[in-house]
Write a structure and sequence with these properties.
Number of helices: 2
Helix content: over 70%
Shape: rod-shaped
Order of helices and strands: HH
Radius of gyration: 15 Å
Strand content: under 5%
Number of strands: 0
């Protein structure tokens, strides 16, 4: 039971981190619908945000 709670907690942290990383890209795509996902990714430059969980 404790192990399951730990796994759920880790999964929640990972999910939150992924959302935090990808949200600026989604916002950029919403602001400029004509650009591709790759272009939005370049513009927000999340690849340089190396966060540790």
């Amino acid at each position: 039971m404790i192990e399951e709670n730990r796994i759920v907690k880790i999964a929640s942290l990972i999910t939150a981190e992924v959302i935090k990383q990808i949200l600026p890209v989604i916002v950029e795509m919403e602001n400029k619908p004509s650009i591709s996902f790759q272009e939005a990714l370049k513009r927000t430059d999340i690849s340089n945000n190396n966060h540790s969980v």
